[in-house]
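hey so u asked for the seq, here:
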Amino acid sequence: MIKLGESGKNAKKRIQCRITGRVQMVMFRDFTCRKARKLRLTGTVQNERDGSVRVVAEGEEDQLQKLIGLLHRGSVLSRVDDVEVEWLPATGEFLHFRIVFPGKEGK
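ran it, structure tokens below
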């Protein structure tokens, strides 16, 4: 069995995304959480005060790429105008994927 090193395609990575458009009050966080869990990713999704949604996710690069594609599509009622993506090294700080609600902290 060949294991890929940290620079390999299946190495754990992290994305931080800002999604704009009609993405609040349209089940976008729930959509994102369900899709991320199905892809076995960890992280968070939360609404921002400016009307955007923030996603932080960690996992294998190919699964993160799939999530990015889903974020561009969005939930049935949403309209996604833009998805900004920043790639970073994984930190391993999350145990699972969850929705962060206003005023709630923690991992």
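The longest helix spans residues 61-73. The longest strand covers residues 12-22.
lmk if thats what u needed
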